[in-house]
Design goal:
- The chain has 230 residues and is α+β, with helices and mostly antiparallel strands.
- The protein has a domain of 133 residues: Nuclear Transport Factor 2, Chain: A (Roll).
- The protein is built from 5 helices and 5 strands.
- α4 runs antiparallel to α5.
- The radius of gyration is 58 Å and the shape is rod-shaped.
- This is Mammalian cell entry protein.
- One of its GO terms (cellular component) is membrane.
- It comes from Nocardia nova.
Length: 230
């Protein structure tokens, strides 16, 4: 019987000096295995994640950088028409002012030339109408003074049976101040007398230089002063 016990012990017994694993030991081993399988990602996985994150950051940066130039470009594109319109309006105003100034100067010149022509062109047989034409184109003190002497002037012209014919040779603006211009007008005046007239015969053409003061009113321009200049 002792031999049987020894035989059984050699088959089922634990080696000498070795403790049989307990339930606690098995649980610890299971925990270690589970820990290895469920622990943080491996180095390769972490590297892959970092690369993905870097790509996302880089892509976001590119998008931001792309949006800013587009925004600036859109703002600039929107501002260009405004600048063009502003410049065009400014240029149009300058051109309009320049055109207005040119037109006004031309009107001063035209009024002065016509006024000088009226003064130097008077026929004895049409003196009343010719003098009235002078009055219609004049104003201010000159109109009043000429009107007060017009009757005696017409009488002298008729008595002398004289005809004066003016020819404007040159005219230029001397100065312009607000609504008044001073214009120098040069004219050649030829005077003739009908036979039997007080003047007798014809006179050689005379060169006249007149300073015409032209005043702009609300609706027209008038000659307001006339003086001879050397």
């Amino acid at each position: 019987m002792a031999d049987d016990d020894d035989a059984d012990g050699s088959v089922t017994g634990a080696p000498a000096g070795t403790a049989e694993p307990t339930a606690a030991d098995s649980a610890a081993v299971a925990d270690d295995v589970a820990g290895e399988t469920t622990s943080s990602p491996s180095g390769a996985e972490q590297s892959t994640a970092r690369r993905r994150l870097s790509r996302r950051i880089l892509h976001a940066g590119k998008r931001i950088r792309a949006v800013r130039p587009r925004t600036i470009a859109l703002a600039a594109a929107a501002a260009v028409p405004l600048v063009v319109v502003g410049v065009a309006a400014w240029q149009w105003k300058d051109l309009s002012d320049l055109h207005h100034d040119d037109s006004e100067r031309a009107a001063y010149l035209s009024t002065a030339r016509q006024g000088a022509l009226n003064l130097t062109t008077i026929r004895w047989d049409n003196a009343d109408s010719d003098v009235q034409r002078i009055l219609d184109g004049s104003g201010g003190k000159f109109h009043d003074d000429f009107a007060s002497r017009s009757a005696s002037f017409v009488a002298v012209v008729k008595q002398a049976k004289s005809t004066s014919q003016g020819e404007i040779t040159e005219a230029g603006i001397e100065s312009v101040d607000h609504d008044t211009a001073h214009v120098i007008v040069a004219a050649n005046v030829k005077t003739t007398h009908v036979d039997g007239g007080a003047g007798g015969g014809n006179q050689d053409p005379q060169a006249w230089r007149l300073r015409m003061t032209v005043h702009r009113t609300a609706d027209r321009m008038l000659v307001t002063d006339v003086e001879f200049v050397p």
